[in-house]
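SAMPLE LOG
Freezer: B-3
Tube label: C17
Construct: single chain, 171 aa
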Amino acid sequence: MASEAERTFQRFAVFGGLSSSGTEMNSKNFSKLCKDCGIMDDQRVTSTDVDIVFIKVKAKNARTITFQQFQEAMKELGQKQFKGKRLDEALENIYRLVEGKDPATTGVTKATTVGRVSQLTDTSKYTGTHKERFDQSGKGKGIAGREDMTDNSGYVSGYKGAGTYDKKGSN
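STRUCTURE (predicted):
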């Protein structure tokens, strides 16, 4: 049962952090784990209780907890959540709540393409100089679409007979 809890610990420990290795969990992810797994119910165990337990089990100057400290925190929260039960029974019930859970991503903001946003990003409706930055398929031309490309042919700009000198000299 502890190995399944350890896998859940690792999944929540890496959630939202690019550089997290999954061996240590911060306070934010610990609160998320307690909320997503149903340990925090706002009646017996509140967010304040979860924060106090986190501070109690972590090392003095640390900002994160290890899996061993997580187990201590689960004992504390188990006694609070399941009052009147023995410690081992409460711990077993807490691990049953935790096992196999993943971080929930409900309520996460998604990109929308409805209404005004789709009108603003439709390149076929662009006019003027902005129109020159995209090809017919709507793909950007890159630097060629943003800058005036210099003509290094040696002729003055606007000269209509550019490239005809060699043809005149061979006659």
